[in-house]
Amino acid sequence: MPIDIGSEIEGKVTGLAAFGAFVELPEGNAGLVHISQIADTYVKDISKHLNVGDTVKVKVLGSAKTGKYDLSMKQVGKPEWQQQQQQTMMRRRTPRDQKDRPTPGTFEDKITQFLKQSDEKLQDWKRNIETKQGIKKKKRLVP
């Protein structure tokens, strides 16, 4: 009998990894509690929160494969509106590196843009060096 998504059930921690904890569920099913779903606070080391053999209460978030489930410990006992609000806030956050990503284009466009930027930087560098060395010649007025 499959487990319903959204239900809260008890399971036993069977393994720990850097990215989450593996939990054995009733009827031979298994699931993973991702490190971000273990506690409301930032979790750096899972072993400070869980140990192999612990019995934990989890909420079923989704099904990855038959008999494999995505689980959460931090959403257990929270009302539905609070969970939806938290998920909305998580979706609004953008990765830090998303701003730095180049705009998609053809290879030729990227090469052209790179060459233009490198020429500009080289000219700035040369101007800076010349002014520091005093090489930049001033115009002399000839009488």
Automatic annotation (TrEMBL):
PANTHER family the UniProt entry points to: 30S RIBOSOMAL PROTEIN S1, S1 RNA-BINDING DOMAIN-CONTAINING PROTEIN 1
Molecular function (Gene Ontology), one example: mRNA binding
Origin: domain of life: Bacteria
Region (Disordered): 76-109
Compositionally biased intervals (Basic and acidic residues): 95-109
InterPro entries according to UniProt: NA-bd_OB-fold, Ribos_protein_bS1-like, S1_domain
Cited SUPFAM superfamilies: Nucleic acid-binding proteins
Gene Ontology terms: biological process: translation
Protein's name in the database: S1 motif domain-containing protein
Residues annotated as domain S1 motif: 6-74
Pfam families on file: S1 (PF00575)
Natural source organism: candidate division WOR-1 bacterium RIFCSPLOWO2_02_FULL_46_20
